[in-house]
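Page 47, continued from p. 46.
Same chain as before, 102 aa.
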Amino acid sequence: MSAVILSNFFWGYISDFRGNKVVLQLSAFFCLLAPLSVIAARFLTPWLLLFGFFVTGFCLTGRRIGNTNFLLDIAPVLNRPTYIGLRGTLNFPMAIFPLLGG
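Result:
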């Protein structure tokens, strides 16, 4: 949770000054770094697991911020409500399936 909170400042700065495409690219890098650090923890030190969890928080927050803002960047002004509504509709199965499976 601390990584999620701290990363908002980082992603906000990157989004404002570098763009949302860079946010998505850096987020993809952090998403790759998370499992690699967990694998390395097996061979080096268990303390790398903490780094893996921290990087996972960075990854998830970056994806959340980057996806929404990048969609707003690429959507035509008149069609933005449609794009956002379609995104919400297509995300519905990801929200309901864990409830059905549980």
